[in-house]
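Schema walkthrough. Field components (list of strings):
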Amino acid sequence: MYIYNDFDEEFVRNRVAQFRGQVNRRIDGSLTEDEFKPLRLMNGLYLQLHAYMLRVAVPYGTLNSAQMDKLAYIADRWDKGYGHFTTRQNIQYNWPELRDVPDMLSALADVGMHAIQTSGNTIRNVTADHFAGAAADEIEDPRPTAELLRQWSTDHPEFQFLPRKFKIAVTGAQADRAVTRAHDIGLRVVRNDAGEAGYEVIVGGGLGRTPLVGKVLRPFLPKSDLLPYCEAIVSVYNLLGRRDNKYKARIKITVHENGLEKIQELVESRFAQIRPGFAGVDRRLLSEIEQSFAAPTYVINSTDGYEAARLAHPAFRSWTDTNLSDHKTDGYAVVSISIKKHGATPGDATSDQMRAMASLARDYGHDELRISHEQNVILPHVHKSDLLAIYTALRAADLATANIGLISDIIACPGMDYCALATARSIPVAQEIATRFDTLKLEHEVGPLKIKISGCINACGHHHVGHIGILGLDRAGVENYQITLGGDGTETTTIGERAGPGFGADDIVPAIERLVFGYLELRDNADETFLMAFRRLGADPFVAILYPEKAAKNAA
Amino acid sequence: MSRAFTPKVITANALLEGDAIWFTETSEWTRDIAQAELITDAAHGDIRLLEAKADQSIVAGVYLADAKAGPNGPEPVHLRETFRTRGPSNYAHGKQGT
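Field assembly_structure (string):
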């Protein structure tokens, strides 16, 4: 993976030193809160309901074991012994004290990490497929592209005061695990007729208050044009994007209001203008970066022991059935470690668990870890002969939950338990749903089902693209939960449809239970997933299950 | 006719820890909402808000929040403010843990 060069190192160290000075000046009273706030936000420091929150970028979700160990160290030394992995492949610390934050950033810099541009109206952490470099369906590893974009966007002088935040996601595979169609720019590596790799460039997707599926701006962009083309897009947005209304400021609204054709014209014209200025430095940089993402040296080993262990050990077999994905190399698997134990907070890992995962990466995983936007941790390169040892170690660390892609593998934002913007809680709803279906021992029978929960309209919990989405709102001071149905965040991205009136906090889990039992009745067979059944039948039968009184009245 | 003024407290976060705090009648900051001044008059509230904001070397994010009189002192009205008096519901962290 990419290791900081002298320039990166110096840049990050300088930023830590600057921020240390700014914190000192805030504490001694030289800076007012109004003056300090934009400075702290530039460095990922928020003020939440109970405390500060430090959001640290995990660039394109990739970590090595030393970085994961450092995240654990920071959690113990300056926080409450845990961290929260987010839907944007970041980690958030919920309890830092202002005085300690420069030391935390300095500790991060020791392992080539930072919190720069994890907030503010800038280009945020570039996210990528969490199976990057490992997935069997991959055309090309998206991480060199994401790293080039990180370098280009970090402190980019033109893009520090955009109309609003700007999020880029990259995938190199056919299956879209990076939700590229719900980003300001989504990049999909594709091949043209000549077999050359390039990008399908998608623009103007986003969730939040106005969910929109991104549109294809360029079906095929040569790889060599990546930076000037992205710079043209952000440049056009920077001038055209609305600054009069925060809720209309994202590029999705700019595209929607101006039309794709006009945006295309403006982007192509700006691109033609700036393209010559790039002079090939970007391409040389990309090829250098590509070297640092070379595939690990895979081992060749027998998998007989693995197959035998699967037969002998039902719990291990169940875990391998749900938590493994196909690797591009024979004998290897991609391991998803669930950070969604039934009843636990989705995405929270203790420092002990972080160290356990780091140790597994070191011992069995070519020193690589990934954070997924679904708030789980991935060991991307594991030989199958090591899986039993990994499973045993995960059990000891309370990390062996076999629920990836199932109903308890819920995305949930921090919600009103932490977030100053939230209108309702998300975490307790996720905890109750997971606990309920664990008690019913039903989730394996229900099969693949993605529930995503947001505690406000900003949709950090991706509820619009959940097969079942839950949006927590404030109705006259009381938590109220709206359900959306049929959303999908993959290559067939669909915004879910709102089912009807919201449910109170006591009624939302029973409503979900009713819905899932109803689906089991409606499906053709056990292979028809919730989403497939929804697409075949439409919303009506599911809405009737959610609102039985209304359905009975209509029938009368 | 202007709307009736609903009682309020002045609240903020402590600059160093970020902990929720409230402004008292004696212009100090308390970690316990019950010790806060319950403001029942809009004009008085405006003045007190200015005074509270002047304390910005020790606090951040000062604002007025709806509150009501309880047996032991002011109590929060809104759910969000209730959370600020105790902490998150998933761990015994924050005020409820101390």
